[in-house]
Every structure is written in structure tokens, then in C-alpha cells.
Specification:
With 261 residues, the protein is of the alpha/beta class. The chain has an eight-stranded mixed β-sheet, with helices on both faces. A two-stranded antiparallel ribbon has the order 7-8. Strand 9, helix 7 and strand 10 form a beta-alpha-beta unit. Helix 2 packs across helix 3. The longest helix has 21 residues. It is globular.
């Protein structure tokens, strides 16, 4: 039977580290959850996945990006590449064998970036309302909507904290500009061939579901399904949303496990 442990810290490099919680199980694959922008490992999807993994004797890792939740770091200085590195180090240092990545919103973007770096380890992905390449667009949208005083903060290159629909968020021009280094090139096929499932709510006000519809044809994998939920919103955290996510994961677990026998 899988068993949970308390939060621990994983060294990334130098004084950088991330907080994580790992559940050890004897079955395969290991599930790693990549949270969304400003979300943390105590969110409803993250904790629901932990219970699912305990019940199914699966190893599971959830974590906080640097500067978020329990992880030390300063959003005034970090860059998106730091969060990509966080996810990669979590997989490299905390897991062995096949990994099923579950990425929500920004975590979907991070999952694709890391899968491109280590496709031999990532045996499947479940992407929930994946928010690819969105920071430039988001920055300009917010910049044009804030007050003159807040715009002046951004013009000075400083970090602006704002209250968003899901909690506090930050924006910073340098962070936004440098996020382009981590863009997924959508002008050509994405060379990933593992099973991939995309789940998106039609009521999502933040990432239009048609972006996921367009994304499925970009993957080289033939084993790609798009699940559209008419009443679903961006977070996909209602009870029936979570049931859909878990059912999707269940259907992926068996073929991934059998492929490693």
C-alpha cells in the first residue's frame, strides 16, 4: 500500500530548492503533477491525485515551483526557465521508471517542455487546459488594463502583484519577455510520440478550448485524445471534473504499465 510523507526539499542548484511531497507505491507508472500559474501542491487537483495514487498503490510526486507555496524563492527575480528546471529535476531526482505527467494550465506548458527534453522518461501526459506560450499575451492584456501608477511600476521593470480570479498573481516585464525562451514552436510538429490526453472546459475564460483543439494536431503521436467538457471552467476542480481527470488517468495507466513488462 502506498503511503504519504510530509513535505521535503529538493536541491535544484546552488541555493535553489523546491518543496515536494512524495507518495511511494509499488505499481507503475509514477504520476507527477505540474501545477498551474501561482497554484501550489495543496490545491484540490494535487491532493485528489494523491488520494488516487494511495488507493491504487502508485508512486506520486507533487511540488511547488520556486517562489510559490512552500518553496523558497523570489518572484521578483526568477524566470520561467527556473520552473521548467524545477519540474525536470523533480522527475530526474525523485522518480525512476515510467512517468505519467499531469499538467494543469501553465503545468501543461511545463510538461510539454520537459517531455521534449526527456521523452524516454515520459510515457504519457494528461494536459488540463494547457496554457502554452501565454505570458507575452497575458502581460500586454494586464498592462493595458491597470492604472497609470501600476503601469509605471511595470515600466520600471519592477514586479507588480495583483489580485486575480484564482488568487494573487504577479507580472514582470523581464519575466514575460524571457518566457519566450521556453515557447513551444507551434509552426511545426511537436516531436512527442507518447499517449497524450487533453481535457478542456468550454466555459474556460482564460485559455479558449479551441487552442487545445488546434494543439492536438501538432503532436507527432497518433495516440492523442481531446476531451471537451461543456460545463467545465479553467481550473477543472469541481467534483465531476476531478472524476473525469481520474478516469482519464486510469485508462492510461494500464497500457503504460504493460509496455514496461
Amino acid at each position: 500500500m502506498a503511503s504519504p510523507v510530509d513535505s521535503a526539499f529538493l536541491n535544484i542548484t546552488g541555493d535553489r530548492k523546491v518543496a515536494y511531497r512524495k507518495t511511494n507505491g509499488s505499481s507503475s507508472p509514477t504520476i507527477v503533477f505540474a501545477p498551474g500559474f501561482m497554484s501550489n501542491m495543496r490545491g484540490r487537483k494535487a491532493t485528489t491525485l494523491q488520494k488516487f495514487c494511495i488507493d491504487n498503490d502508485l508512486s506520486y510526486v507533487r511540488f511547488d515551483y520556486e517562489g510559490i507555496g512552500e518553496s523558497p524563492g523570489d518572484v521578483k527575480t526568477l524566470h520561467l526557465r527556473n520552473w521548467v528546471e524545477d519540474l525536470r529535476h523533480v522527475i530526474e531526482k525523485l522518480t525512476s521508471g515510467p512517468v505519467l505527467l499531469v499538467g494543469s494550465s501553465l503545468g501543461g506548458w511545463m510538461s510539454i517542455r520537459v517531455a521534449l527534453q526527456m521523452p524516454e522518461r515520459i510515457q504519457g501526459m494528461v494536459l488540463i487546459a494547457p496554457a502554452l506560450n501565454f505570458f507575452i499575451e497575458k502581460y500586454h492584456l494586464i498592462y493595458n488594463g491597470v492604472s497609470d501608477d501600476e503601469r509605471a511600476i511595470l515600466d520600471r521593470g519592477e514586479c507588480l502583484m495583483l489580485n486575480g480570479p484564482y488568487g494573487e498573481i504577479f507580472i514582470r516585464k523581464e519575466y514575460s519577455d524571457q518566457s519566450q525562451e521556453e515557447h513551444v514552436d507551434l509552426s511545426k510538429p511537436i516531436p512527442l510520440k507518447m499517449p497524450i490526453r487533453l481535457i478542456h472546459g468550454m466555459q474556460d475564460p482564460d485559455v479558449p478550448y479551441k487552442r487545445s483543439l488546434n494543439l492536438i494536431s501538432q503532436f507527432e503521436s497518433d495516440d492523442v485524445d481531446f476531451i471537451l467538457r461543456k460545463c467545465g471552467e479553467h481550473q477543472m476542480s469541481e467534483e465531476t471534473d476531478l472524476e473525469l481527470i481520474l478516469t482519464t488517468i486510469k485508462l492510461l495507466i494500464s497500457p503504460i504499465s504493460l509496455s514496461k513488462l
